[in-house]
## 1
Amino acid sequence: MRTQVVIIGSGPSGLLLGQLLHKHGIDNIIVERKDRDYILGRIRAGVLEQGLVAQMDEVGAAARLHKEGLIHGGIELLFGDVRHRIDLNAATGGKNVTVYGQTEVTYDLMEARLAAGLVTVYDADQVTPLDFAGDKPRVTYVKDGATHAIDCDFIAGCDGFHGISRRSVSAGGIQEFERVYPFGWLGVLSDTPPVSPELIYVRNERGFALCSMRSHTRSRYYVQCRLDEHVDDWSDDKFWDELRRRLDEEAADKLVTGPSIEKSIAPLRSFVAEPIRFGRLFLAGDAAHIVPPTGAKGLNLAASDVHYLSQALREFYVEKSPAGIDHYSTKALARIWKAERFSWWMTSMLHRFSDTDPFTARIQLAELNYVVESKAATASLSENYVGLPY
Ligand code: APR
Ligand code: PHB
């Protein structure tokens, strides 16, 4: 087989890239190790920056997003038992975010790819990017017991943090930056009405909490937990009691509880690989970086990587210029690090760290008071939360 670009991974990064390349007449094949149902079974965050919404519009996959997505012009910070609204809209000259599950984004992109008749190879084992140091790269994989090879011009590694693409780069050719946080998030999805119309980020002496949603009838809640805890340690009742204890009185009274339809614990880490271009192999999305979910940047950072990479490939094929692919890594990493900083800052400000560090607790409260009292600080949080320009 032959195509212009082989995309490894059928998550949001790979799917969005595939549609953008297709829109500009660039042939691509996605090779994915899991099947469609497995991918759609993953529960992930659900806050979309306008840049991602614009790209979904660009590839014609935004109809349901506009119909079902919830436009949010603000968030709330709850600390010291007081809720403070951050008016994102006012602080950013009218920008907002859209609340719409990542699973729905993935589904909509899968449907668009299917409608376009593009090739996705699911259940591909032993996917291996090869010869990407030269100008004739290829990708091999095993399916139904047979080994297949796809010759191509470029390989896009959109295979996530645990994928093969980054691991295929020689150790000396890549530098990794990482910070692992000493806590996790226990998340619950429930078919209950959200406790508040906007998201509430909570800093509480017992630990962080987040009240989010997927729709007016489906809520998503998180509480910070220890890394040695297991999801089986948390009955639904125990979760709801703990969440209530971290909320203000009004929210605790209004909280509608119900059976969890999904419950899981996720560790938090910051991670960046440098560079993210290796000859004819490019990394994008979680394959290149990980952010703690506190800033809602994971999916949105994947979208900006894909924006830069699709532009670069279009310049190569349409304008016959290598400038875009030569600058992809530098350009994408500049925005990646800004989102890493914001996600680290939100995480550092809102979570309970060591018990023996009262100084940090005071600094966190000072930071939060500064954010809600200073117009400049509110604007800084807001412009990062709605998404810095591409
Ligand atoms: N071969 C083929 N496919 C692979 C391989 C492999 N060796 N390893 C992983 N994959 C597939 C996974 O099965 C998955 O479908 O690559 C895809 C990667 O998707 P994601 O992990 O969702 O990463 P990405 O598309 O970059 O999306 C980033 O997802 O994890 C969240 O918080 C993250 O919101 C962010 C978004
Ligand atoms: C979510 O809805 O899952 C969500 C929202 C905002 C975050 C993290 C997760 O910062």
## 2
Amino acid sequence: MDTKKVRVRFAPSPTGGLHLGGVRTVLYNYLFAKKHGGEFVLRIEDTDQSRFVEGAEEYIMKCLEWCGIEPDESPLKGGPFAPYRQSERKANYAQYAQQLINDGKAYYAFDTPEELEVMREKYKMEGHSAQYDNRTRAFMRNSLTLTADEVNTLLAANTPYVIRIKMPVGETLLFTDMIRGAVSFDTSLVDDKVLLKADGMPTYHLAVVVDDYLMKITHAFRGEEWLPSAPVHLLLWRYLGWENDMPEWAHLPLILKPDGNGKLSKRDGDRLGFPVFAMDWIDPRTNEQTTGFRERGFLPEAFVNMLALLGWNPGVEQELFSMEEMAALFSMDRVHKGGAKFDYEKAKWFNHQYIQKTDNVQLAELIKPQLADKNIIATDQKLIQVIALVKERCHLLNEFWEQSYFFFVTPQTIDTAAIQAKWSDTAKSFFQSLQTNFIASADWSHDNIETIFNNTIIDAGIKKGEAMLPFRIMLVGGKFGPGVFAIAELIGKEETIKRLQNALASL
Ligand code: GLU
């Protein structure tokens, strides 16, 4: 039996905002590691300098922190296999590319960008696939077509080159994916991927294999979009002599658009009005800002719970899980093969559930910045009382203000039309007496306000239903909000009377 300690990794390239699919990949890695008492490594795959984006690495780390996912090893934290940034590991890769060349498994390619372009154009016109592969390489400038002397001369003259893998012809490669089961590839259809670039940096293909090996990764979970690269990686593991150490792979299903039509993209979020990134992301190149789940008012526990179930069936009826509960239940064979449709309403349902579960004191801390933005000064005690009254109505933390502003400020407008629809002389005299009775009251508690209200109803001979709604509208401005006597109690006697007066004056 294999007794190797479980080691998994999340290996993002710091190229921009963290898509919820990326967060789900981290999450499944993390849950799997926790379940098996293993280690979770964060490795930054930043070897593609042309795609590097300033600030993206810090942003990814902050996203993980917000989600409550702490790597055991990372660029920040260090660890036994440091450094964890591939750009700092550059010296590791060239020797393996060289080893592959020496073993005849890879070759130098000296083709200039112009020559590659000519090749692509030619094959496109002829209707072939325009890739650098077992067919086209015979017509290109590489160490398979040039003589050893020619190659040595080019190398001695520092001619720029890349190193490509030499894909064998007509081999079938097989591996067992933890989600998909047996997967096979025909090597003839795979192109000769670049392993080492002209700048001496490895490509993703070489770096991911070398680092998964050196970092003793036992299980590699990544998005389905990487499945076509698997044959290249399989061969690299074999050619480098590490086949017995190859991690088990799982290629995670895509997160689909709500209508199920293709992968969910940032643009779908913009179009349909929901976030797709974990946190707000500002692209430093364009200054374009994209909203995140955090800033839209999601609690991290809800976000993580929702994401975990987007593709994984825990096998029980329960839907709300803490991270520990999910880790205890997690298994890859319960992850679906097919894509999972993103459902924003369901995401909000999760958030609503978590808002209800979260302690009001804790919610107050999260909501304070919203009040500060509006220059509202409120005591903690009042804020906590308001939260207790309105949390049930909030699916997002950001809905707090629209559900509760009337506790903090006098509504600027009130829906007088809705009051007028049922307005009568009886109603008018009821509200006049109500004011008088409120002014005279010594006890401004919820129950006493209600008693005064009920007694005034009897005296005025008005139906309760005809008095309640106008009363609510006078206090909050519209037909919404929590219990009206609770509102009156919390805004206070003076403010309640003032709002009644203002409303009566405008009717
Ligand atoms: N660097 C790859 C990415 O950006 C990682 C893929 C993998 O996990 O192998 O997604």
